[in-house]
TrEMBL record:
This is histidine kinase. NCBIfam families: sensory_box. Its EC number is 2.7.13.3. Residues 646-760 form the Response regulatory domain.
Amino acid sequence: MKTLYNSFVTEDGMSPFVLARFFKSCDYEGLPEDIRNYIHIKDPKGNLKLNNKYLTLLGSFGKLDNWKYRDLSENFKAFPFNEYMLDKTPMLSAAFEEIGLKPAHLKQTDKSILIKDYHRQYGIFCVENANGSKLIPKQAEFVRPYSVKSVFGFGGIYSTSNVYAVIIFSREKLSRKDAQLFLSLNPAIKQITLAHEVTGNIFKTDSKNTNVSIDNFSDEMPTVQMKAYNKTISPRHKGIIEKEMALTYSIELEMTNEYLLGMSEELKESHEKFRSLVENTTDWIWETDEHNRYTYASPQVHQLLGYEPGEVIGITPFDIMTLEDQQSVRKQFIEITERQESFSGLENHNLHKDGHTVILETSGVPIISPDGSFKGYRGIDRDITERKKTEQALIQSEKLKAMGVMTSGISHEFNNILAVIKGFSLLLKQKYEDHKEIYDKIEVILQSVTDGTKIVDRMQSFTMNKTDGTTFTPLDVRKLIEQVIELSKPRWKTISEAHGITYYIDKKGMKSVSNICGDSTELRQVILNIINNSLDAMPEGGHLSFSTWNEERNVCFSISDTGEGMYDDIRKNIFDPFLTTKMPIGAGLGMSICYGIIKRHGGEIDVESEVGVGTTVTTRLPISKEDCDFVTRPEQQHEPGVMNLRILVIDDEQTVCELLSEFLSQEGQNVKSVSSGKEAIKLLKSESFDIVLCDLVMPEVSGREVIRMLDTLNKRPKVGLITGWSEEKEIFSMEDMKVDFVVKKPFDLSELTKCINIAFDADSK
């Protein structure tokens, strides 16, 4: 036990074991005298049977002095080796049960020396968590004080039919799989004790030297000498010993071979799992040497970049990056390499074998050899191209949302101003209809109001991202492109050729495509804007190519030029409002408006560009359903409106109140006006009105609150909402607010009259 105890050492230089013990069964006659005396004391009536087997402690070695000798140990006494007595010692009972040494099966002489698979008959006893286990005795006195983590054991049977078991208490935690490795010691334990067991001298040794070893066997020597006794073994015993020794040697070799084969299978299985993982993941696994050259590339490199693994072996990551990243990423990576640090999330732009850009996210760890030298990196690349596009789209959406809030506020105020100018101009127009000079100047004012209204609409066009299908019709994108090419012909042909500049128009890529649903005016604006940008990028002339194709559920079209191209930082922000490369003549709204239009159509627009090569703008629009959500509403003709209506006008712009009061009074209505929601509520509580014309956004008390208050009146008047907001459909629901009609500022006075007439005509029908 001493040899076993000291044969294993942990990093702290100490044995991993707390205590190792060797138990053995024996006939009464084979027991030492002190044990027989103990049995007589326990059985004073003399009921013991001389042919009974007893289990006793043969050897012990441990941390404490009294654990190092059998006769100093408290648990060296013997007890009958039967199932009844084993049940009283749970640990030994469980150990013999798991090892496979049951007392009921051990009455005959062992024949296992003739069985090749002898060692497979016996298992391993293991309690992985000794602390708190009911199988391990003396928890408070032994297990916890001496930090016993696990207990394991193994054993076997001699040809004498006696059994043995080794129980080891470990301060290192062991799994059953770990404990299984100690089975390889079993043949050696048997070899050491076999000669003593066969000759019946196993107890006839110095009590303080239980680790008995036998002398060497020799074919020339008729006897075998034992160092402990220097006693000759008889030829009969020698034959038994040699036969069983030969078997144990064979078993030891077989177990070693099985272990090596098992390790080989485990390594093979581990290799297969790793290979399967590497080859089936969507990411690219790689290794580089100390010079950053690829030494391994998993098959996924083909899916990500179009290269076969063998094509990238020997090159560096920078060889397949874009020109911009070759410099910046190389510098960053060299700094990481010099520090031999792990890294993660390193973004880099790479050129696919077919030429398009792929964004990869790279992570890696240094490879350090056993001698501490740096050997390179092992890592993984993940394609994040689509993720970056989504992030950019989200950022763009947030920018447009912020711009939309600002633009909506401006348009509200601007529309209020335009409403006053337009309203009073219309009144003056009626008054001076026969005065041509004044009439013509009023027309100029009204035209300016119309132009101002269009400017407001254009300001908001790139911030709107919801589809409004009321103006959508089925469209053929190819025909739209043909129309715009013809429309822009004066610029790319007539004017340019007059200046000696030639543009080549290539329409070979325009294939027949499905229809889409859209607004033809808006989409022509997008195409024209892209063409103009391309022509601006080719001041000395060049090629302009058009392509159309179907792609799953989308109709796609692209416009490519051979112009100057853009740097990546410009391309990434191309859809930002007020970004322009045409200073000082460009406003920077063109591509923003295009982005807004395409988003309203439920599509996507993307730009690829390379400096010195050119730019391609690709647009994807959903294929139309059978019918677009387009409804043509016939104009309704109305008789002259009702008169003498009591009308309340509510608007925080006093000039709007004055305008509507004057106009509606001329129309024969009874009008009162207030410039705040608070005044309106006070007046509505004291007077009755047929219709309320109310602004939506007002300080303190809003139009929404005024309209909600109308529900409390005995007689609820009709409601017309007059607003300067361009996105009124998103601000309120007409049904929820019980609004009869909405008029957007700046409005035609005749339109307001028509809405009032319709509201009251509905009641008369």
